[in-house]
Amino acid sequence: MHQSTTYAVSKMDRPLPIFGDCRLFPRKTMRVLFATSLLATCIGCFSSSSGPMTDERIAIVANTRIQSVSVTFPDNTEIMIPPDDFERFRALFRTLAPIKSTENGDKLEAFGTYQLQLFAAGNVADIDVLVDDTDELVFALDGYTYHGGQRDRFVSAAEAIRERLGTE
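Request: output the structure for the sequence above.
Response:
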């Protein structure tokens, strides 16, 4: 006689879909957050190989999870910003937009620059920002120099950070 053999297929033997009927992340919001964090970690925010900074990237970076930030003022006062005040730094960072022009080279030769150091999404950015007599900012990041931004709002946001966290 011929015996038939049946095999039970467990749930573990089936492929686990990542974004469909997902048991790992049962809620859609969890799947979206996971995908967003994975994308932010893999791509990076400040990689010079991806080209110059744009207004859109400034908006994205301003909303990225920040791990640590500091601002160094023209008088060499450095202020480390605690997590409770990261929104103040985000407001400062957003004033770098709109970018009007970009050129190769990232060295600012002038004195009186602010230095912003940002560690977010696994990337470090050192940004030199020159505030001069014009209505725009000049800042350097990842091999490029940028012209644009909002000078008066930048200075106001920087001074708000100094008043809240630093000393005169």
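The beta strands are 66-72, 78-81, 99-104, 113-120, 123-131, 137-141, 144-148.
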